[in-house]
Task: structure prediction
Amino acid sequence: MNKKKEIFMISAFTENSVWRQILGICSALAVTNLMQNSLVMGLGVIFTLALSGFTISLLRKYIPRRIRMMVQTLIIASYVIIVDLILKAYFPEISKSLGPYVALIITNCIIMGRAEAFAGKNKPFDSMIDGIGAGFGYMLVLLIIAFVRELFGFGTLFGYEILGDWWTGWSIMIMAPSAFFMLAILIWIIEGPLTTRKK
Amino acid sequence: MGTSRTDFKDTRFYPVIFMILITVVFIGVLATFYYATEEKVRGYQEENLKQMILKLFDFPSDNIREDYQKYIIEITLDEYDYSFYRAVQDSVNLGICFPISGSGLWGTITALLAVTPDMNEIIALEIVSQNETPGLGGRITENWFKEQFRNKQIIIGKNIIKFELIPEEEKQKDNEVKQITGASQSSKAVVSILYNEMRKIASLIGFDYE
Result:
């Protein structure tokens, strides 16, 4: 039990994919102007990471080394398409607002990274926990950035009005450049003042 | 037998056979998912289209199915495989809505164009689907861009108007449309689609233009 918890904590925080490894930045920048989109994107990535990790780990002894990346891509892409179909069928509004980004989860480096670094060498359930952890760490970053961007950009959180009518939205927060600033500030805070890591 | 299995794994056929098998399995799973959700997705798309048509003419759309039946008449030109929509309220003809489409920068842009019954003036334009660059060309779905077309003359006399594009900050004249900064190709695509599709529609319904 403790080992599983450790795997989760390491992949979610200690080795967080975004602020430690700077992976998955593209989508972290793209969808973070609304909390709701970030949450759905995060859940989609968790789902894909968990199941692709599990599947790749399950097949790890049979996957020929030379074509392992092809196989990983196939597995990852399949799960992403499943996420896309589920969103289209049951959450059409969200699917529409996320647009092409759901399909682009396929190219999210975190997933391939975890497949190579963890799932290919560890047991299925451990790999699943690792995937959930990495996805959780990713979602956390998305939500923190989206919190600031949506609050200052629209004056709302999850679409609920927080700041009221007097608030003038900062249009820079809605546009992509603000995500660069926010992400950089976040990484600086976590890796700087907040971390007393000794190297 | 154990050794022969290891031997087979070392042959060059193994990766090929493995890849074929795993592809078949995953495609099978995906196909199942696709067929299981297909009807729901299509149902939603139809509903979405109906709602858009209602909104173009400012009809209520709280009860999409009923409102659609009440206000919209679908007309299909069988020989061209093309449908358009007539908006009617209290037997007064309010306008016509034409589905239009054409190529954008990355993919097909489809839209709905609502015009007055005499087809001379645009009532509203709505983008149904597009694959333009998010944040740049994708902004063709933003209200300020679409609203520019409202009340613009698209046919004057026998001429179909092709709108001119001008930079975002300039003041616009009747036949001008502000383009999206950083997305001139997508802006151009919308204007071309309007012009080309109007010409096509005009010839379909037998309108005599120059």
User: Anything to note?
Assistant: The longest helix of chain A spans residues 124-154. Chain A is about 70% helix and 0% strand. Chain A touches chain B through 25 residues (CB under 8 Å). The beta strands of chain A are 156-157, 160-161.
